[in-house]
UniProtKB/TrEMBL annotation:
Presence of the UniProt keyword Zinc-finger in the record: no
Iron-sulfur as UniProt keyword: yes
Transmembrane segments: none
Chain intervals with Low complexity compositional bias: 1-18
Residue ranges constituting the 4Fe-4S ferredoxin-type domain according to the UniProt record: 132-151, 176-205
A GO molecular function held by the record: oxidoreductase activity
The protein, known as: 4Fe-4S dicluster domain-containing protein
Amino acid sequence: MISRCCGRSGRRCGTPRSAVLGRPPGTPSNPPSTVWGPSREKNACRVCVVEVEGARTLAPACSRRAEPGVEVRTDTERARHSRKVVLELLASSVDLSTTPRAEEWIKEYGAEPDRFGPDAARVNEEPKVDNDLYVWDYDKCILCYKCVDVCGEQWQNTFAIAVGGRGFDARIAAEHDAALTDSACVYCGNCIEVCPTGALGFKSEFDMRAAGTWDAAGQTGTTAVCAYCGVGCNVTLHVQDNEIVKVTSPHDNPVTHGNLCIKGRFGYQHVQQR
Ligand code: SF4
Ligand code: SF4
Ligand code: FES
């Protein structure tokens, strides 16, 4: 597929964000993307590469700025081959089981998840559970740093988490690798909101998955206005068997863009006291 950017002053194709990938990944003719979302793209995984006229190398569609009249080829053999290898590297090194659409992309690109063998796993350890609200599952982390950015200057300005260690030891951690409960974390859960792989996830979901009771297909999502204060954030209540199992926030809300605080994100238990 060839598309030409309209290049309307500072706007991105169809969205307020000026990337070649202006619509959700997987929209017909769009390449896949793990990091596409409400916060700034990280250009970390290269699963979204496209050919851009005049560029020697493939460009990441999630973060490459769209320019007037530039020809972008999204479905060439070179781009598809590169995506296939990236998917193989990702699937060999991290657990993609909770990455939305990863399985579909692996099929679509004919990628072999086992190509680089069992030794390619970057991390092999039990999920870290040090608080009642959310869980770090390092096996699933692609080190995209989105959680670090939204905890920091992009959204929350709390700077509770960063990348600790180097090379194979690199991991997302609170300062001095402290337990989250001993860190500056304010439990807004915005890091969970943007995590593309489920490496940072809700404890409620983690427990239900472990118990075999998580049923995403049987859940409904109802968007309402948070009643805690006058800001009026939108909350989406995910309900299974008449119980709220997690709360997210719509990314396209023009005011909150997916942000919530601890009350909106986690303070729903009182609703279920019947
Ligand atoms: S919950 Fe909020 S404050 Fe805590 S690590 Fe995540 S983004 Fe930072
Ligand atoms: S925990 Fe999630 S958001 Fe943070 S670096 Fe890992 S994959 Fe990215
Ligand atoms: S989705 Fe663009 S680099 Fe990962």
